[in-house]
Automatic annotation (TrEMBL):
Protein name, as recorded: N-acetyl-gamma-glutamyl-phosphate reductase
Signal peptide: none
Enzyme class: oxidoreductase
Record's subcellular location: Cytoplasm
Recorded metabolic or biological pathway in which this protein acts: Amino-acid biosynthesis; L-arginine biosynthesis; N(2)-acetyl-L-ornithine from L-glutamate: step 3/4
Semialdehyde dehydrogenase NAD-binding domain sequence ranges: 4-140
GO CC terms of this entry: cytoplasm
Length: 336
């Protein structure tokens, strides 16, 4: 049995990763690819697909998608995604949105992004972090696929929320490869600027800060102040977060992680500091933690384009369609 799937937004990095995942998926059948511009062949957009996949990149047509697909992935910028979802959600189709359009409450979204065009659908969207929302994802037709920074940060910190001193600030120091900035030309991601360089950007006010904050509160029913600072590093892909917190009592952090994630196939608890190289090209999230008395250090690493976007979208689609969550998810890292 095959399930027809389409991608809207083939021109970006996450769209490219979705194509690579879906053509190797045992159940999903990629029936159409859409972009902002028409290309007679996918290989004219991505020459690496020559002699691998022959398929046109079409201009988006909602009626065609609804008629041909059971699942649709939207790899579009914020605001653009909701324009399509507002229409698609009226049909019997599973939707996985990789933008930020349905991740936040209305007030937070409009404060950090722009005016929302589909506010009535916000309550229908489920935040697609499988380890914490698995049963809700399975019943949903609209998934808000988490951001890359929030994915790594939440998977690292959520097991420890019951043990933290909630009167103290939670500090998240995050670093991402340049692919996280997308294809859009910008001075900060210009080769001459990012090569042999490292810098923070949007400290404290980054758009992923309220996403992390809201999900901590929703999932744990606990409010804690966070200070989130992202950095851009001269790597193509990969992400590492380092988290600093204050405990209420002394604990064994590795034991807590191992117990909390003992049933999770794509969470690896390490007894050493995690490295980006070990997860790039995979759906894994590697986590390590250590404490000095009541001072807690946690570090986690993911592939920002896969676990932080496209492979997580596929995991969500698997659940939505009643499939084994792990189907088609990449396991082998790009090493060396």
């Amino acid at each position: 049995m095959k399930i027809a799937a389409s991608i809207i937004g083939a021109g970006g990095y996450t769209g490219l990763e979705l194509i690579k995942l879906l053509i190797n998926h045992p159940i999903f059948e990629l029936v159409s690819i859409y972009g902002t511009e028409y290309h007679e062949e996918l290989s004219t957009l991505y020459p690496s697909f020559k002699k691998i996949l022959s398929m046109p990149v079409l201009q988006t047509n909602i009626q065609s998608i609804v008629q041909s697909s059971k699942v649709v992935f939207l790899a579009l910028p914020h605001q653009k995604a909701m324009e399509y979802i507002k229409i698609l959600s009226k049909h019997e189709i599973k939707i996985i949105d990789l933008s930020a359009d349905y991740r936040l409450s209305l007030n937070q979204y409009e404060a950090f992004y722009t005016r929302h065009l589909d506010a009535e659908n916000l309550n229908n969207a489920i935040y697609g972090l499988p380890e914490y929302n698995r049963s809700l994802i399975a019943k949903s037709n609209l998934i808000a696929n988490p951001g890359c920074y929030p994915t790594a940060s939440l998977l690292a910190i959520l097991p420890f929320i019951p043990y933290l001193d909630s009167t103290q600030t939670l500090y998240i120091d995050a670093k991402s490869g340049v692919s996280g900035a997308g294809k859009k030309l910008a001075y900060t991601s210009h080769f001459v600027n990012i090569n042999e360089n490292l810098f923070a950007y949007s400290p404290i006010t980054h758009r992923h800060s309220p996403e992390i904050d809201e999900q901590i509160t929703k999932i744990t029913k606990t409010s804690i102040k966070i200070l989130f600072v992202p950095h851009l590093i001269p790597l193509t892909r990969g992400m590492l977060v380092s988290i600093y917190a204050r405990l209420k009592d002394i604990i064994n952090p590795l034991e807590i992680l191992q117990q909390h994630y003992k049933e999770e196939k794509f969470i690896r608890i390490c007894d050493y500091c995690v490295q980006i190289k070990n997860v790039v090209g995979t759906h894994f999230c590697d986590i390590y933690a250590k404490n000095d008395g009541k001072d807690l250090f946690i570090t986690a690493s993911i592939d920002n384009l896969l676990r932080g976007a496209s492979s997580q979208a596929v995991a969500n689609a698997n659940l939505m369609c009643g499939l084994e969550e792990t189907l088609g998810l990449p396991k082998i890292a790009y090493v060396p």
